[in-house]
Design goal:
Blueprint (H helix, E strand, L loop, with lengths): L5 H14 L5 E5 L1 E3 L2 E3 L2 H9 L3 E5 L5 H9 L3 E4 L23 H16 L4 E4 L1 H9 L3 E3 L27 E5 L4 H6 L3 E4 L6 E4 L4 E7 L4 E6 L5 E4 L7 H27 L3 E5 L22 H7 L3 E7 L9 H4 L7 H18 L4 E3 L3 H9 L3 E8 L9 H9 L1 E5 L23 H13 L2 E3 L5 H10 L5 E2 L16 H9 L3 E4 L3 H4 L7 H15 L4 E3 L18 H10 L4 H21 L4
Parallel strand pairs: 1-4, 1-5, 5-6, 6-13, 14-15, 15-17, 16-17, 17-18, 18-19, 20-21, 21-22
Antiparallel strand pairs: 2-3, 7-10, 8-9, 8-11, 11-12, 12-13
Helix pairs in contact: 3-4, 4-5, 7-18
Length: 591
Amino acid sequence: MGDYHLDGHVEKAYTSFLRGVERPVIGITTNHQDIDVCVRDRYHQQVVRAGGIPVLLPPVADESVVVSYLDHVDALLLTGGGDFDPRWVNEHPSPKLGSVNAVRDLPELLMTRLAYNRQMPVLGICRGMQALAMVLGGHVAQDISEWEGGLGEKLLEHSQKEDREECTHEVRVVKDTMLHDIFHAETLRVNSFHHQVVDSPGALFQVSAKSADNVIEAIESTEFKPILGVQWHPEWLGEDGLPLFGWLVEKGLAYRQAKSFHRHHLTLDSHCDTPMFFPENVDFLARDERILVNLPMMLEGGLDCVTMAAYLPQPTAHQTFLEIAPFKVGGPKAYADLIFDKVEVIVAQCPERLALARSAADMLSNKRSGRRSIALAIENGLALEGDIRNVAHFAHRGVVYITLCHNGDNDICDSARGTCSHGGLSPFGVSVVEEMNRNGVMVDLSHAAETSFYDVLEASKSPVVCSHSNCRALCDHPRNLTDNQLRALARHGGVVQITLYPGFLKRQGEASVLDVLAHLEHVAALVGIDHVGLGTDFDGDGGVRGMKNASELMNFTIQMLQKRFSEDDMQKIWGGNWMRVMDEVQRMKNK
């Protein structure tokens, strides 16, 4: 007889609730057959055993429903089933194609792409692994016999007749992969129920397991993302299959914690160059792939505030600004004003989602009202046109900082890539720094020569910033700051914002999110956590593997959680330090 005492179960429910154990919600895709929506019970049983909360997601081809699904789950489990219709990837159906499920295809493919854009953990099983490949740049052969890699005499039976719990062959696990970390084994015994095969994982995945006949049995993200697909069915393998579900639950919990952090704390990017693409008529309100920062990507990545710089290219000795300006205007000042006019038009088009921000208080107020903030900045003091009165003009427009120079000396100071025109800060530059102090505009020393850097620290009464700079100790580049510069900046109360420009992160090899963290940790170890943040330089050639656009900034938070950064430290990195300096500079206005 079962336990039919309801009160006892209610008491257990309250006891569990009071313990406050956090369990991530795992969304499980479902099958559709006739009038039934269902899924094999082993999927949700394994999720529960692994410590997750299973929620079944019926295949609904309504985009708003799919988005809502993803709003309410912490990880996605793509289950097995019939073949995908190859027309979704512009292929004609093969005579060997199995039964397709038209009701299921669109919701699952759409869900997979949107989950990827959100950095959500995904485990794809059999058909689910094929969905990952189809959606994210790989390829699926419609039948294993049509695999161009060629099996010759097929060594293994990939549609086994034995029971589902029976393991029929081995797969070889690649070392230094997530799959190897999960199982701590170089071979696994698995079952097999498929006739289609992933014959190319694409650039976003690497192969992490193969069978003896060279069939790809597992793929995983190459971008430090918790995305993994396996061709076998671990839901039927009990304890032997449980580690995969444990991995998904663990990553789902980390994602849940990252979402919670972004919900409760303001996140800020101190520098992007998206206005450089305004001449191409990009659409900031759409997920325009020509730019790395737009409103949908900010929403996906949990980014609350972006600082858009009006970048002014520095003319050479034989050029005028008008000859190289992307828009035809009267001069540098008019060009910066035009950029700010265009930003204001963007904000006016979507006032329920966007707002300008002149201060930390504005940014926090916008977040509370559910709006993303855009702050304004100038990259290259050339915009002042040698007229000190223009500092007040741009302060009135809402500019929060001015980067004194770019890749070339100007009338304010020498550049890190210049020719030492002044030996540091010019006499006009000294007055510019003093006037920026009086108007509450932050002085930005990214791009400045080392001599200019120290001259500014001497001239400025307010803390200064480096909106997008890295550490020379880790990457020897003149644009990066020496340890002595970092110490001086910290003593002056300033902050350096680690940037994603690959050449400033490492001199050889491909840079990644791990290199960003290495520079961040170097600053924190050298001068303390109160003096470092993030300035991506997106759309100014910033972007690395794992942080290639604004939608992937959630991955930065997840990586910090994995490194055991505290919530307070993450809050400082994600904007708290920058806003502290901004507040201080604005409080010292007119003093």
